Amino acid sequence: MLRSFRLGNHRSFRDEQELLLMPALPGDSRPVVPVAAVYGANASGKSNLLDGLYTMRQLVRSDLRSTTLEEGCLQQPFRLDPASKAKGSTFVVELVLSGTPYTYGFVVARDEVMEEWLYSYPEKRKRLLFERQGRIVKFGSTVADVKAKLELLEEMVRPDALFLSLCRQLAIGPLVPVFDWFRSGMRMPSTARFSRHIHRSVSSYLSNGDTARLRRMVALLQAADVGIVDLEVNEVSRSVGLRDDQVMTQREVVLLHGDTREPFDLHEESSGTRNWLALLPAVLEVLDSGSLLVVDEIDASLHPLLTAKLVGLFADERINAQHAQLVFTTHDTSLLGTMLGDQVLERDQVWFVERNAAGASELYPLTDFKPRNDQNIERRYLGGSYGAVPVLGDFFEAAVRK
């Protein structure tokens, strides 16, 4: 489970900012909250916050030089301040894995890892697993099985590679849980809602022939009231060249509508239906595994009631028995209130991002404002009481200006 994420000098985040997923309301004894919603104006930095999580995951999971960052560069620093370009970028997570808290983080410059550290807190006592300065790594006394591998480690630690990434090759026991969290404990479904991405994700989720998975997915499609009664994944052969023998077989999703089970291709469905279907494999997988789901613009083309129901899957302990978490950005202010008599978001689950006068993004929680229970959070947010809304100019004057 993710307790917090901190980043600094990454894209629009110049100064270190922290997203907390720990309860802040009286009487809440849960170790983490299941949901965190991030609001803000366009270009405020909401997507950059999630990109920080994505970047951290990519740097841990793969060779740093094979990430999606600019070739030859390990960081994307704040660009509106010359001093920031010469500083490192910081990424830190606090996790709870099998009941044990961990803190893992690193600082990367353009072409090197400056610092890296990992601590565990068994029985609430801090325990060093490793600390790194440049290429010098110091191990804690509990990492006993590393001593026999020190010579190999010294050869393998490159200035532009994270030490935690070596777990994949060396299977260093005490470090493996944290590495595994980055490898499989966080899902970030593609924001591209193109048909090929949906075909791939849905067919992959259903590839093992588990009929229970199919039933759950169809049930959620039916519950969304989009007219779908069933779903099929068919193998289709398509020509990929000029010659007739150049064909490729791929799996494609077909959606069945109405009493006659009329088949519809994905491109014939609405944008909202495609977006809902694109999310379902990741949603169902994290609910089963207790993982983290990170979604940018979760409300894209979805009706507010449908978005609220999706959030409710994570808030309902009967459904979310494995303690999965959902972190998302949104402009849907209706989630700040009640729907059908139920509160969608708790007040310690709402965060705002706003750019300051220097153009740097700042992250802060709704609880900083200590809102009363009788206050209309949606109305006050749109009225500017919490910031993180656009300061709009005169659209008429701008439109008629010569």
What does the model show?
By secondary structure, this protein is an alpha+beta fold. It folds into 2 domains: 1-185 and 291-402, Rossmann fold (3-Layer(aba) Sandwich); 192-289, no CATH class. Helices cover 27% and strands 27% of the residues. The chain has helices spanning 46-61, 82-85, 150-156, 167-170, 176-184, 195-205, 211-223, 271-289, 304-315, 377-382, 395-400, and strands at 2-8, 17-20, 35-40, 89-97, 100-108, 113-120, 127-133, 136-139, 186-187, 228-239, 247-257, 262-265, 292-295, 325-329, 338-339, 342-343, 350-355, 361-365. The protein has a 7-stranded antiparallel sheet with strand order 2-1-4-5-6-7-8. It has a 6-stranded mixed sheet with strand order 9-13-14-3-17-18, sandwiched between helices. Strands 10-11-12 form a 3-stranded antiparallel sheet. Strand 10 (228-239) and strand 11 form a beta hairpin. Helix 6 (195-205) runs parallel beside helix 8 and helix 7 (211-223) packs across helix 8 (271-289). The termini are far apart. Mean pLDDT is 91; it is low at 64-68.
